[in-house]
Amino acid sequence: MHSAIVSVTNDLTTDQRVDRTCQTLVKLGYDVTLIGRRLRNSKALTPRSYQVHRMRLLFEKGPLFYAEYNISLFFYMLTHSSDLLVSNDLDTLPANYLANLIKHPFSCAGKASQISHLHDCHEYFRGVPELAGRNTVTKIWKWIEDRIFPRLKHVTAVNQSVADLYQKEYGNRIAVVRNVPFRKALSGAIEKATLNIRPDQKVILYQGAVNVDRGLEEAIRAMKYLKTDAALVIAGIGDVFESLKTMTETEGLSGKVIFLGQTPFEDLHSYTLIADIGLSIEKDVCINYHFCLPNKFLDYIQANIPVMVSPFPEMKSIVDRYHVGVFIENHDPVALARQLDNLLNDGLKLSGFKMNLLKAAEDLCWENEENVLVMAVNNRTIVETQCLASLDKNRTIEF
Question: Which of 148, 205, 347, 372 has its CA 20 to 30 A from that of 29?
Answer without folding.
Answer: 148
